[in-house]
């Protein structure tokens, strides 16, 4: 037993050639968030507060696809989603279509704590945020130049596919494929989302996930993050936060499956996480998870996943690809 | 093996004293849907097309979906629907739909015509128009009974405040009309053909007096709706309990990971949900049917290729 915490900043096709100016700020952010989370756990804060705190930090950091730095819809707007869940009580809160709330994860927390519901979206979520006095700003606050560029590239790529389709009748170029994650010239594709899972030394578990979604998504598109059991889930056994292609994570009910397989097949956290990940098509997902007994698992079947974790016995790790950087 | 179909019109505190003028139209609605579904299966339609018969229940004002949807706290309609194909595991969901006559068909289009799984509110409405789906004024969906239900729910909330009890805002008690007609739930259909193709569809107006923007279990894959190669499930009841319990996913998970039959798995899952909160209909790839519920009743009907059929509300089938 003992506390444990894991944090992720998104799984995806993160090229090994990612230049330092893209890599270092994210590693630094993961390190800072890990430290914030560790300090909160050592101070005996409840895991729900710990995961909210950590995810807020990541939302405020423009280098991750959540809060400031969120990817843009096809209309150039921001529609953020977030979800939080308490493993012991199984209370949860989720929001979608949030465009002016500085910290969507805190709005999700309020849905859980202050309403009889679990999930509020779009205008209703925004109205509730104002009712609750949450900090709101102009939507432009969240939009970064990198994401304007990513949207432009995604739309150009889609137009090119359409051009090929209409001019060459190439059946291969389906008009409506999931937009390829628009990579900037240096390969920085900003897939994914941010998340945090934590357990304290009494076995209280919590998970929180937050995202801007996928580049050039249709207005109104909801992904896996706010879907309990898909991108976010916690019960008395474990807490899970997933990242990757939303549609694959939803179909695969990834987060729920980790816990289900632990319970129904008697697998350990690491075995269960591997089992759930193996059922997802390669290149599509990653997850972080902690168990009630302080185990940690961080798996991905993409090129990389920005991640970090620490346990009470002193272990800690920050990684992007397969070998930990520290 | 053989085809099978099950339909539900909502689980909840349906009183045994439900008067005939409330009971008979719903039984007739279920019977008609069952017949439509049976004919479609006999004609070898794909289960995805068969379960879209949920449109019939949406069009029927006696059920909490489409016309007849319960109202938000602002007196508006925000409908949700979800459809899933067990073999491909493709799925489509919509929420916050206010003018589309058949939300289930919009969910189907999200599945078939977009790279996404789930569209909501303005984005869903815009997509519906792009696709040429039939849309109407929101007033089309609003019935006098639901205006009354909303009024009663809001009065019940006020009464709670007057007593100044510690108000944890509880899930609004389903506003029961004087005759006990509380209209909980949703509508749904699951079907399997004799090749083992499975599909599920669920549609709802949500819960009475819900906050604007509130999303329930229906469009949440794994909660109210789920299908894979083993079974197809559609759940009904208190959305928040169904979401926490990941009901629909768990039926399939328990079949797979514990080796239970469909009926055993469905019963197991419903048992885990606090009493009075949920019901479901499910079919398996081998043509089994299960319709368990832990509420007073659940409007339901089913039929299998071997000739069995049933329409029921409480524990003993009415026919």
From TrEMBL, chain B:
The record marks 185-186 as: Cleavage. Keywords: Autocatalytic cleavage, Hydrolase, Protease. InterPro entries: Ntn_hydrolases_N, Peptidase_T2. Substrate binds at residues 214-217, 236-239. It catalyses: Cleavage of a beta-linked Asp residue from the N-terminus of a polypeptide. GO terms for molecular function: asparaginase activity; beta-aspartyl-peptidase activity. GO terms for biological process: proteolysis. This is beta-aspartyl-peptidase.
